[in-house]
């Protein structure tokens, strides 16, 4: 199933081998480069540009030498906002992913470890929630919770929970009857210990793969929720939010107020998936 | 086949029941109440209380749920709180719109996806293969509103080839309606193409590597025949599962496209109902999406069983 | 001399209050518009008023209003009504636009804030304005067949004033008119016995209070079944969430509608409405906010009807707790605003600056002598220093996603930064912001600082009362001031404009000193139409289409 159980030296060589493979994949490298670019924008962007400074009497100016990407309705520099717009989504999406993975893993461990009525009941509930599209689920959660960075993390985390739980449950099922679990059971270890210290380390690889896949979805979902007005809130220069604020303008030819944000989102999600795909391929 | 169906139906019913309970419980968390939502923030509290009483929204939650589910199992979707009229026609109209848009997207993406997957598999390892995989992967992860905006900018406003609203003028014929749905359907094609192409490619690769395909080639059958006869069916099997898994999304999850292209589908019906505390409308919308999900999953399983005798023999998939 | 004689002749027929109005004019304190407006509250017929105005030399400026041709079909894009179209409960723009197509009011608030008699022909009041008598128009037919009588008016008003009825008009009647206090004098005369004297009562039953369309006494609460009323149009077809169409009512009591047909299409969002007008699928849009509406403001094929209004966004600051408990801090915040820039930038000039009181200059009762507050960072800093917060402070501003409010919030945040006030924005959906809309369960009413939208009103009374009175149910600022309450009470009872202005001067001075609420600007309503469409009266948020037609 994984490198667990191999001699340490062998594992390191395997690691190096994989890294070498990764570094030979142009798709992976391009993706990594784009991510690093946006991460550095998120970290240092606001030191260089001010996305909030308004110049209201110079609103909706087209791209020029002074404003490379033009200005929005409040006369704010679109270039500054696109650069600084990477920050919130790069904080919220990974946090939401981690929350979803943590909750889903916990639920999946319980479901897989206690077959019988516990698993039956929880499985039915998970199945019921999965009948709804992810976006509808997150949208309903945010309508109930109200929109803020914290609630977006919570809503997406909760929405990820059932699907992660299903993956983890399947992995636990195969591990549960293996010898090392039986041995630990004989030693009289508690259920909590068995789940947390025996089974969990052995199902980490599929969880890590799930994590990278979920991260892509999380970015997708955060951007979408912001576009619908229930995600990140003004005055955040978030890309999805900017498109939502400005798309009524496109009929008037103010294309620069949405185009660069759209391209920024596209570049980030594609990059994350190139990297995730590269990792998954090497892991196989 | 019938046995499989009979075994699965109770599970489906339980799933839907739990879903309705969850939505109802979640609905209790929504801020404000329906009387306030209808009458607005400036209305007198006495008027708000009166409206909540008229609608029965001031009764205990479980009583309301009991009455609702009692009617629902008898096929009555109750009255909308906001519109004070039966819910069914609203859901029916929204569902019909969603099915039209989803249908156009499906018709475009299924053949394209399968074709893309097979072509990629036949050119395995070559540039064309990589290109298809990469494009599919990228298109799948770009949010609909991003591709939608770019499409609107280029084809709607720049080239003026397509209308940028999905709603045709009243009384439009089928052809005109189709014309209005092309642009909104393309972002959906992008999203789903990658999944289908990937599964079709995997299925084809597996089939090409299988013993029977090799034997057939060794027997001197033309490659085209081998592909048509053996590979295609095997490529289709995993694709069906993916298509089924995307049905719920393609019918109920299109809030973004519906918002962007001004279209009244089931997704925006659910969202509007949730914001307006219109509980009967919300439940009806959710149950509709749930039923579609359950039915499409069921249909996919039946189809797989029909195409693949091993599953039929093996019982629960 | 001759002029004065003719005035005297007219005066003889008038009461004390009306004569006071004439004095105001002669003293040069009233312009023509204000004069007409005040006369109309008092039920002077327009011909009498016109005569008076002519006699004192206030001749109406002749406005060449283009007249469209009859027989057109007018296609309109409006916001989707949020729920059932029901005159008792409707609270949203889409719904009210539907109500006023077939429905009519006793009187209608005009663009210049005067009242035009519609189903009432005239009205008058007793000495202290506590009893108002309305004469009804004879021979008005309901679409369902009956003739308009006093009983219909009484039933309509009672229905709306009944606390058991889920009436959206209940808060407008609160403290003014209760159920059972509208009484029949004869078949065409109704008397309203008010809870307390109220000088602006006709506005309470005018189109200002849009739920007050007059329906037959027999109305059963099923408006969507029959769309009854007395108006120039009658319903042709209605599909919930999709649209409605109307045709000319051949039995209308007044000038028959010019258009053959009107067709309304519902849209949830602004952008598709804009695109529908640009694409030629509709002829006009109900309302265009400046933010997000730039595409049409510059479009050469579009004419913008500009409707002066008193609509505004109130920025409340909690007077009872937190950093704004000290009025010097509230004044300092007010002094950071560059109001000219707000109007020029945020509203593209479509509005007027506010002076931190509800008295927009279009109100004839607004005191003309109060100085306009201007941006003054130095003074703001001094005030903060004096209040002991010279280093500045952090504060949360909570508000709703509606019109230009989020953008206004961002500008306020940037203005306040100049004096060290660090505003953190919390922008929510409208549901979340208003919550249960009662104290303790509403971000609107509980937040330290917030921005709330208020629509157009023909008189400032509503703005002066619920949001600012000590026991006001919309008093988000938690402003409690006995002097203010007494002044507003007196203002409500006063029906002569001179007295109103004296009181307004005191109220404005008090509000400028206390500054519980920032009134940064009053914005115009903009109605974009296809070029060549004429005959739509510039009345904010009331789309009357009976004179519409293409030139």
UniProtKB/TrEMBL annotation, chain A:
PROSITE patterns xrefs: ABC_TM1
Keyword Transit peptide attributed: no
Database matches in InterPro entries: BP-dependent_transpt_permease, MetI-like, MetI-like_sf
Subcellular location as annotated: Cell membrane
Principal subcellular localisation of the protein: membrane
GO-annotated biological processes: transmembrane transport
Pfam families: BPD_transp_1
Phylogenetic placement of the source organism: Bacteria, Pseudomonadati, Pseudomonadota, Alphaproteobacteria, Hyphomicrobiales
Coiled-coil ranges from the UniProt annotation: none
Source organism: Lichenibacterium ramalinae
Name this polypeptide is given: ABC transporter permease
Membrane topology: Multi-pass membrane protein
Family from the record: Belongs to the binding-protein-dependent transport system permease family.
Keyword Cell membrane: yes
Transmembrane segments: 21-45, 89-113, 125-144, 150-168, 215-233, 253-276
Boundaries of every ABC transmembrane type-1 domain copy: 86-276
A cellular-component GO term for this protein: plasma membrane
The organism's place on the tree of life at top rank: Bacteria
Keywords, sorted A to Z: Cell membrane, Membrane, Transmembrane, Transmembrane helix, Transport
SUPFAM superfamilies noted in UniProt: MetI-like
Signal peptide: none
UniProtKB/TrEMBL annotation, chain B:
Keywords annotated in UniProt: Cell membrane, Membrane, Transmembrane, Transmembrane helix, Transport
Subcellular location: Cell membrane
Domain spans labelled ABC transmembrane type-1: 95-304
GO biological process: transmembrane transport
GO cellular component, one term: plasma membrane
Entry keyword rRNA processing: no
Residue spans crossing the bilayer: 12-30, 101-122, 134-158, 178-197, 235-257, 284-307
Its membrane topology: Multi-pass membrane protein
InterPro entries registered for this protein in UniProt: BPD_transp_1_N, MetI-like, MetI-like_sf
Protein's name according to its UniProt entry: ABC transporter permease
Species name: Lichenibacterium ramalinae
From TrEMBL, chain C:
GO molecular function, one term: peptide transmembrane transporter activity
Gene Ontology BP, a term: peptide transport
CC per GO annotation: ATP-binding cassette (ABC) transporter complex; outer membrane-bounded periplasmic space
Ranges in coiled-coil conformation: none
Cellular localisation: Periplasm
Record-annotated Solute-binding protein family domain positions: 115-435
Keyword Manganese tagged: no
Entry superkingdom: Bacteria
Ranges that cross the membrane: 39-60
Keywords assigned: Membrane, Transmembrane, Transmembrane helix
InterPro entries on file: Peptide/Ni-bd (IPR030678), SBP_5 (IPR039424), SBP_5_dom (IPR000914), TAT_signal (IPR006311)
Family named by the database record: Belongs to the bacterial solute-binding protein 5 family.
Record PANTHER family: PERIPLASMIC BINDING COMPONENT OF ABC TRANSPORTER
Protein known as: ABC transporter substrate-binding protein
């Amino acid at each position: 199933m994984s490198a667990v159980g191999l001699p340490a030296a062998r594992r390191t060589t395997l690691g190096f081998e994989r890294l070498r493979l990764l570094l030979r994949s142009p798709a992976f490298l391009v993706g990594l480069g784009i991510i690093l670019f946006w991460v550095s924008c998120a970290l240092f962007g606001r030191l260089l540009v001010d996305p909030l400074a308004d110049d209201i009497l110079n609103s909706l100016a087209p791209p020029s030498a002074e404003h490379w990407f033009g200005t929005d309705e409040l006369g704010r520099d679109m270039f500054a906002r696109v650069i600084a717009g990477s920050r919130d989504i790069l904080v919220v999406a990974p946090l939401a992913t981690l929350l979803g993975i943590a909750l889903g893993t916990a639920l999946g461990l319980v479901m897989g470890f206690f077959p019988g009525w516990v698993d039956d009941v929880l499985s039915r509930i998970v199945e019921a929630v999965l009948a709804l599209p992810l976006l509808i689920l997150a949208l309903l959660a945010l309508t109930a919770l109200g929109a803020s960075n914290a609630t977006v993390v919570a809503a997406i985390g909760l929405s990820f929970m059932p699907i992660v739980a299903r993956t983890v449950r399947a992995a636990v099922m195969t591990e549960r009857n293996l010898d090392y679990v039986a041995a630990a059971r004989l030693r009289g270890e508690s259920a909590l210990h068995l789940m947390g210290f025996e089974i969990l380390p052995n199902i980490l690889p599929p969880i890590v793969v799930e994590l990278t896949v979920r991260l892509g979805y999380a970015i997708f979902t955060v951007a979408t929720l912001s576009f619908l007005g229930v995600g990140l809130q003004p005055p955040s220069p978030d890309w999805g939010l900017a498109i939502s604020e400005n798309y009524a303008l496109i009929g008037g030819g103010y294309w620069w107020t949405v185009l660069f944000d759209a391209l920024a989102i596209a570049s980030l999600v594609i990059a994350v998936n190139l990297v995730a795909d590269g990792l998954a391929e090497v892991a196989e | 086949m019938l046995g499989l169906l009979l075994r699965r139906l109770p599970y489906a019913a339980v799933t839907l029941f739990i879903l309705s309970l969850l939505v109802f419980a979640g609905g209790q968390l929504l801020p404000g109440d329906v009387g306030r939502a209808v009458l607005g923030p400036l209305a007198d509290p006495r008027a708000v209380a009166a409206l909540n009483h008229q609608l029965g929204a001031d009764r205990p939650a479980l009583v309301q749920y009991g009455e609702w589910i009692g009617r629902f199992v008898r096929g009555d979707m109750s009255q909308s709180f906001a519109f004070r009229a039966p819910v069914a026609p609203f859901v029916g109209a929204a569902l019909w719109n969603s099915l039209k848009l989803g249908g156009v997207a499906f018709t475009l993406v299924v053949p394209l996806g399968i074709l893309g997957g097979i072509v990629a598999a036949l050119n395995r390892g070559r540039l064309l293969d990589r290109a298809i995989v990469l494009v599919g992967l990228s298109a799948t992860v770009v949010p609909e509103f991003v591709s939608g905006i770019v499409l609107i900018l280029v084809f709607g406003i720049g080239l003026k080839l397509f209308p940028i609203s999905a709603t045709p003028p009243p009384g439009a014929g089928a052809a005109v309606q189709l014309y209005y749905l092309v642009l909104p359907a393309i972002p959906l094609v992008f999203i789903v193409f990658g999944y289908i192409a990937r599964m079709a490619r995997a299925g084809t690769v597996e089939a090409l590597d299988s013993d029977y395909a090799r034997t057939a080639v060794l027997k001197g059958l033309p490659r085209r025949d081998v592909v048509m006869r053996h590979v295609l069916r095997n490529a289709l099997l995993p694709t069906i599962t993916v298509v089924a898994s995307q049905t719920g999304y393609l019918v109920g999850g299109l809030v973004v496209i519906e918002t962007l292209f001004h279209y009244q589908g089931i997704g925006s019906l659910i969202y509007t109902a949730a914001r307006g505390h219109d509980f009967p409308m919300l439940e009806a919308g959710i149950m509709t999406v749930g039923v579609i999900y359950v039915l499409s999953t069921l249909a996919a399983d039946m189809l797989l069983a029909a195409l693949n005798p091993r599953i039929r023999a093996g019982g629960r998939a | 001399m001759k002029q004065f004689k003719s005035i005297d002749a007219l005066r003889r027929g008038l009461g004390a209050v009306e004569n006071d109005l004439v004095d105001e004019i002669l003293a040069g304190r009233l312009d023509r518009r204000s004069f007409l407006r005040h006369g109309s509250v008092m039920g002077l017929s327009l011909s009498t008023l016109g005569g008076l105005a002519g006699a004192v030399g206030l001749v109406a400026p002749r406005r060449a209003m283009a007249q469209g041709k009859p027989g057109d079909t007018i296609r309109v894009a409006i916001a989707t009504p949020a729920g059932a179209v029901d005159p008792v409960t409707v609270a949203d723009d889409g719904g009210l636009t539907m109500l006023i197509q077939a429905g009519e009011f006793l009187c209608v608030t005009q663009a210049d804030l005067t009242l035009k008699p519609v189903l009432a022909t005239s009205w008058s009041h007793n000495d202290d304005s506590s009893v108002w008598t309305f004469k009804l128009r004879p021979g008005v037919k309901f679409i369902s067949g009956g003739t308009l009588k006093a009983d219909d008016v009484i039933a309509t008003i009672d229905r709306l004033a009944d606390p058991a009825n889920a009436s959206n008009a209940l808060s407008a009647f609160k403290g003014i008119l209760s159920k059972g206090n509208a009484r029949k004098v004869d078949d065409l005369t109704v008397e309203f016995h008010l809870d307390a004297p109220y000088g602006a009562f006709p506005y309470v039953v005018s189109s200002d209070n849009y739920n007050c369309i007059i329906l037959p006494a027999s109305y059963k609460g099923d408006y969507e079944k029959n769309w009854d009323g007395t108006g120039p149009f009658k319903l042709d077809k209605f599909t919930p969430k999709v649209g409605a169409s109307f045709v000319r009512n051949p039995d209308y009591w007044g000038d028959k509608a010019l258009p053959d047909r009107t067709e309304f299409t519902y849209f949830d969002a602004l952008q598709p409405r804009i695109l529908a007008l640009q694409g030629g699928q509709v002829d006009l849009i109900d309302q265009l906010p400046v933010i997000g509406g730039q595409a049409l403001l510059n479009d050469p094929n579009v004419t913008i009807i500009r409707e002066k209004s008193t609509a505004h966004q109130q920025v409340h600051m909690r007077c009872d707790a937190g950093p704004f408990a000290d009025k010097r801090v509230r004044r300092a915040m007010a002094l950071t605003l560059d109001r000219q820039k707000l109007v020029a930038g945020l509203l593209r000039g479509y509005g007027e600056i506010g002076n931190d009181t509800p008295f927009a200059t279009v109100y004839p009762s607004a005191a003309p002598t109060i100085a306009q507050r201007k941006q003054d960072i130095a003074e703001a800093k001094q005030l903060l220093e004096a209040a002991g917060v010279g280093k500045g402070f952090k504060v949360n501003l909570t508000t709703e996603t509606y019109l230009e409010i989020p953008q206004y919030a961002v500008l306020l945040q940037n203005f306040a930064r100049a004096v060290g006030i660090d505003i953190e924005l919390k922008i929510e959906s409208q549901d979340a912001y208003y919550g249960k809309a009662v104290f303790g369960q509403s971000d609107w009413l509980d937040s330290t600082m917030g921005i709330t939208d208020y629509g157009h009103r023909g008189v400032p009374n509503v703005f002066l009362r619920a949001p600012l009175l000590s026991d006001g149910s919309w008093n988000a600022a938690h402003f409690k001031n006995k002097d203010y309450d007494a002044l507003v009470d007196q203002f409500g009872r006063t029906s002569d404009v001179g007295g109103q202005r004296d009181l307004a001067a005191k109220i404005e001075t008090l509000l400028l000193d206390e500054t519980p609420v920032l009134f940064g600007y009053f914005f115009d309503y903009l109605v974009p139409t296809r070029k060549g469409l004429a005959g739509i009266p510039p009345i904010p948020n009331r789309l009357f289409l009976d004179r519409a037609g293409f030139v």
